[in-house]
What does this fold into?
Amino acid sequence: MNDLLLNYIAVDVICTFALVLLALESMRNVLFSVNMKKQFALAALIGILVMAAELGSIIFENIWTAHRGPALAANVIGFSLSPFIAIILAKAFSVGRGRIGSLLTIPAWINAILAASSPWTGLIFSINSDVYERGPLFGVYVAAYLSAYIVLIISSFKAMEYYQCVTKSTFILLVFFSIAGTTVQLIWPNLHASMLCITLSLLLFYAHFCMLTQTQDGLTGLLNRNVYDRWNKHRHHGSGIVIMFDLDGFKMTNDLYGHHWGDACLQNTGRLIRDCFQKLGVCYRVGGDEFCVVCHNADERYIMGALQLFHEGIDTLRQQNSQHGVMPTVSTGHARFDGTANAYQAAVREADERLYETKRERKTSP
It folds into this structure.
């Protein structure tokens, strides 16, 4: 074996070891949902299979004739499975792909069928005598790979919206880092960079999602109090509107109907806040039954429209859930802040005052 072959083998072995650890750690991660655990572990396991196939093709590269069967099997595995790594990773985001994303997985299945038949048809690849060649339909593999990463990009943007990521650069760099490795290998087939980039991307995606899940409130899915406090402490000065939310009589709801129903009320409130305000600002759960939305550069007319939709949604929930328990009303208050010092804290106090004024009015109204 020459030094270059030994280097490729060493890199593949290290990457395989890293993917094994990733699969094990994914299943043990208490921060991830069951779906995220399964999909990250499955992506890692498929990566291991593709890595083993690539390693096999490298080892047999100069002895096709003597080991044609293993070489064919290695290429079938590599060409068939590699596009599915991005598709499975996209499913880990748990926010859906939609019809477009589902349609974009079709090329991966077509490629898998053609790759599996290539030992006999030579459509994706062929190995004749001691020569490896790309088949006449090799472009199907390229299309499958690119469409799989389009699915990943679509899911990444949905995940960024769901997790309320302010900066999108990390997701974009991770996706294109994987694409870059495959592109290099497509242009220079003897330079095995694809799986190294995919392995690093999987590890970085995992680390990034570990960080993102720590920013979420476990019950409502909104950003948690720690994120709010850090933003409030290190925020950049700017103008906007802050909206405060508080469930009315929530302690009584818990006492009468139990904490299970109380949790359901908080989840419903958080979902409504996300649905009504996510495109206008950043949504937080800042206390037991307290929520906050910070809207930068938002038109107050849109804020008032979103507040009306929110209260209509609460009224609808109160009617729907009346047979199971009473969904409490939600009091709100909002105030505008500018970029001057302490303006945001003053706006929060003003919004709270308006909120509690609403509470008092509800208590005194018949």
